[in-house]
Known about the structure:
- This protein is of the alpha/beta class.
- It folds into 2 domains: about 1-240, Rossmann fold; about 245-270, no CATH class.
- It is about 35% helix and about 25% strand.
- Strands 6-7-8-3-9-10 form a 6-stranded mixed β-sheet, with helices on both faces. Strands 2-1-4-5 form a 4-stranded antiparallel β-sheet, with helices on one face.
- The longest helix has 18 residues, at about 170-185.
- The two termini are about 35 Å apart.
- Bound molecules: adenosine-5'-triphosphate and magnesium ion.
- Adenosine-5'-triphosphate binds next to helix 1.
Amino acid sequence: MIEFRGTAKAWSDGTVALEPLDLTVPAGSTTVLVGSSGSGKTTLLRTVNRMVDPTAGTVLVDGRDVATVDPVALRRSIGYVLQSGGLLPHRSVLDNVARVPALRGRSRNEARERARDTLDLVGLDGTLVDRYPDGLSGGQQQRVGVARALVGTPRVLLMDEPFGAVDPVVRSELQDELRRIRAELGTTILFVTHDMDEALLLGDEIVVMRPGGVVAQRGTPEALLSAPADEFVARFIGSGNAGRALALRERDGVEYVEDEGGRIVGRLTA
Ligand SMILES: Nc1ncnc2c1ncn2[C@@H]1O[C@H](COP(=O)(O)OP(=O)(O)OP(=O)(O)O)[C@@H](O)[C@H]1O
Ligand SMILES: [Mg+2]
């Protein structure tokens, strides 16, 4: 479980990244943060593993105030997928992932075995594991980042736009994989995305942030879709390729689904 209690952040230059926020991510559930660029999503995520110290309020992980936990130990216990790769450039892909179990005291062989299994789990081709990160595509690097976050089977997982650079097919595979892992291990996940479809798919709760670190609306996907609080939220939900006010049409005997702008978004399969 992750609890934010009046968590706020202002940078030393006076920029307010986060207005005081109260938010609970219950154990085993996923909360998705969406919102404008610069609305404080990454900042909020990083208060959980103490990469950012809040200026006010507290953050608790499984009931413990993170300010009282050694930052290094804390970061080892929480999986974190960075917005941009974050892999060590001078270590092979396998070593990047194996480092995590090795630091936690597994033998070198055990650590490498776990790393191989986890890289396989996220669908990285086994022939790539001895390369250095810059020999991989952006999407492949992101999968390594996800593997590195998962390899220690953390109870809490922070994911900052983890699938941004992968193609739609792989993205959908990774989303399914994440849902499977969550169901199997009961992982608590705080997830940032710009993709509303992804938010609706993965979020038990969605928090829409506006500039200045203010929560515009929070709720279940159903609540947000059925009753957006204002124009800002409505535009957010309606953005992307799937308009939300859908209609069933028929043309030449084929039934298909159209959005409010008249674009075809899919066909009914059931
Ligand atoms: N180290 C820093 N020092 C000063 N200001 C910062 C720092 N890091 C972030 N900010 C500012 O804090 C605000 C929130 O940034 P943050 O990275 O949390 O936004 P975000 O919602 O993750 O945006 P994006 O969607 O673009 O990733 C922005 O105004 C940003 O410029
Ligand atoms: Mg960010």
